[in-house]
Write a structure and sequence with these properties.
CATH class: Alpha Beta
Distance between the termini: 12 Å
CATH superfamily: Homocysteine-binding-like domain
Helix content: 40-55%
Length: 271
């Protein structure tokens, strides 16, 4: 099986290109007044070698965007679709309802809100649904159920947070197993620091199911990312990805602190 190259972060690239990310919309604010910048970032990831592109919908849910949520969600899908070559897949991002680094804020009954988002993304024409950056296994299951119910291919990704304090490898393995039982096709770990992610990769590998990884660059001192000058970071990231692929990972991308240079290094390494 070939390695699928997922794209990299939208928020990091918006900031790197001078765009502020105000709460509560965060990266989705650019959909309002900088849509061409969002389109350019999608194009750059496509040029770098990504073939699966994540919509800028991490914060377009009703809870974050209010009455404009549905329009922003449609706009994000349209921008992604218009920016990438025919044949590339668009992954509709479904995120935690509150903060991806604060599982204690996960609402007790998230199903209806995730169902609303999943249906909106499906109606907007995405190719698959990516439930991503979930630090709370219960909420991840709610999002997965909603995504699978649309009939679209569903991927479910967990985060232990940048310092790997939010979920243990065993908890990620258990959550991933539950997601697979619900119908997820791929399970992943994301937004956990590159220097800390390997135990989570091993935990997913134990399941014997399709899995993927897109790690956080960690701190500036780690030398992986966060700087516009890519220096050695992309090659270091690709070196780590080789370990993941050797363990069976078949979807590889990049998360916060990285950019198109990291995706290009992955595409070149696994061409």
């Amino acid at each position: 099986m070939d390695v699928v190259i997922l794209d990299g972060p939208m928020g990091t690239e918006l900031q790197a290109r001078g765009r502020a990310l105000p709460a509560p919309l965060w990266s989705a604010a650019a959909l309002v007044d900088s849509p061409e910048l969002v389109r350019d970032i999608h194009r750059d990831y496509a040029r770098a070698g990504a073939t699966v592109h994540t919509t800028n919908t991490f914060r377009t849910k009703r809870r974050s965007a209010g009455e404009q949520w549905a329009e922003l969600t449609r706009r994000a899908v349209e921008i992604a679709r218009s920016a990438v070559p025919t044949g590339h897949r668009i992954a509709g991002s479904i995120a935690p309802l509150e903060d991806c680094y604060h599982p204690e804020r996960s609402p007790p009954e998230p199903d209806a809100e995730h169902d609303e988002m999943a249906r909106a993304l499906a109606e907007a024409g995405v190719d698959l649904l990516l439930c991503e950056t979930f630090p709370h296994v219960g909420e991840a299951m709610a999002a997965t159920r909603a995504a699978v119910a649309t009939g679209l291919e569903t991927w479910t990704s967990f985060t232990a947070g940048p310092e790997a304090t939010l979920l243990s490898p065993a908890e990620v393995r258990t959550g991933a197993a539950k997601a697979l039982e619900l119908g997820a096709r791929v399970v992943l770990v994301n937004c956990t620091s590159l220097r800390l992610v390997d135990p989570y990769v091993s935990a997913l590998a134990e399941l014997g199911a399709p899995f993927g990884v897109y790690a956080n660059a960690g701190t500036t001192e780690d030398g992986i990312g966060w700087k516009r000058d890519p220096s050695e970071g992309p090659a270091m990231y690709a070196d780590a990805a080789e370990r993941w692929v050797e363990r069976g990972a078949r979807v590889i991308g990049a998360c916060c602190g990285t950019g198109p240079a990291h995706v290009a290094a992955l595409a070149e390494r696994f061409a």
